[in-house]
Amino acid sequence: MGFFTDTSVCIGCKACEVACKEWNMVPEDGLDFTAMSFDNSGGLGADTWRHVAFIEQRAPLGAQETNVGRPPGTPDPVDLGMPSFELPGSATGEDERGEFRWLMSSDVCKHCTHAACLDVCPTGSLFRTEYGTVVVQEDICNGCGYCVPACPYGVIDQRKDDGRVWKCTLCYDRLGEGMEPACAKACPTDSIQYGDLDELRERADERLRSLHEAGIESAQLYGRDPDDGVGGDGAFFLLLDEPEVYGLPPDPVVTTRDLPSMWRHAGVAAAALLAGITATFIGGRR
Length: 286
Prior knowledge:
Blueprint: E1 2-6, H1 15-24, E2 51-60, H2 61-66, E3 98-107, H3 116-120, E4 126-128, E5 134-136, H4 147-150, E6 157-158, E7 165-166, H5 172-175, H6 182-186, E8 192-195, H7 197-213, E9 220-222, E10 235-239, H8 259-285
Parallel strand pairs: 1-10
Antiparallel strand pairs: 1-8, 2-3, 4-5, 6-7, 9-10
């Protein structure tokens, strides 16, 4: 089971953030004005398991109207209903028509198929559920923090007061009762969709095709491919721009993928060292 988040219909209401906090009793972490964005929660963390990112973009309308800088035959931009306004006059005194838009995306733990956090956890606090999701058992987390740098998405975080790690559980307690996760239940536009991953991937493929046919060539799926560096994400996204724009790594890779070869090389080196010491010892006795 997992999430498909269609960012093209996200309105930035943050209902998912509120629902996640209320159901999971996640502490309020301070709604701070960052002076960098209208987003006041900043990013994912120990006390923010769902985060709606506001990506502000400025795009001159003149280039769109005249097709300047766009490949020949590119269709006109499609209005997705995102907020926009005309920019004030430029420094030269000439009016500059332009569009200011928000790309909004509700981010969450990706519940990777190959999860590095599981590989490095020494206590078994992190475990794979029967739904294929990754959950933290806070009562046996020792606060070592190994999983924090192991996550390729920077999702897992430690609470300052006790050092334990916290993240999205995909509402594991609700799934056992046949309920959908709180964030998906609260989403008014169905931007967050919960269900069987295979069905969600088919739905995402169809949605991507429809956007491409509408002329939105920048639309792409992120985390949908089971053959990527983490074996596919249990929470994947439809994006309207490059992953880096949303603060996502363009090519995530499970950070523990090289551990087996590292141990093999270490074993070979240790064996060679032991053989050299043994040969020296035997040679010295003679």
